[in-house]
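Quick one: structure for this chain?
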Amino acid sequence: SSKCDVPEGLADVVAIAASESHSLALQSDGTVVAWGNDDNGQCDVPEELTDVTAIAAGWYHSLALLADGTVLAWGNDDNGQCEIPEGLEDAVAVSAGMAHSLALLADGTITAWGDDSSGQCDVPEGLTGVVAIAAGMLHNLALLSDGTVVAWGNNDSSQCDVPEGLADVVAIAAGESHSLALQADGTVVGWGNNDYGQLNVPEGMPGATAIAAGNGYNLMLLGSGEGEDDTTPPEIQGCAETHVVFSQNGVDTEADYSDWITVTDDTDPEPTVEFDPAPGSTLPVGDTIVTVTAWD
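Got it. Here's what it folds into:
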């Protein structure tokens, strides 16, 4: 079947992934559906595969992250991209390049395996505090908890030359030979190959809230640009102090959004805790969890 021929009756989809010639869909019951080119078995989802929480599609292989933190792979294995490292556990995210695979672990470190012809599996020594990963064709990006980005692998188009001073990044995307970063204010920064204008970010649009990078093009999800410019933080009733923890994919981040919270002293014995970003603001895309603890 074609990669664009969505299976009839497919429903309850919560995540999708697409690659060179095949497509994946994760359903709400934790199962995976695949369609498209199956020359390398990339659409042969393992029987009885369940409890999947995330998926990734390489050029000719597929990855599934399970609820227990383990990873499964199927499809082309010419470069070992489907050979899960022994003992790999506590994974919270996966990403797939042309013939290599990445897993982000709960401790903020990265494990890589598969084709290493361009150093794409040579994770920088001492790299920690990672909250998101993105695999391009032969290079990788890592978003750190402090809002900076690290890149490694093939750099023939400067796709690993992260712009100096780039900060406040909340999401990343890696194309074939270019890279993108979404900043907290909704701006998008690109670097690397620009043969097709993939670095020419359109001007005059509402702030972006999500990004995706393809072979020689990009997509960005835009905010509505509507609504009142009201940045008044919500109130937390009944407490004198608050502690706010932001985490992405289970990893605490150092991002500080406490300006969106105010504290009002109240004698209510059961205070309510509310959190709501100001209109037009953004949070890291993906599995972002906000925990607010309030006490007297």
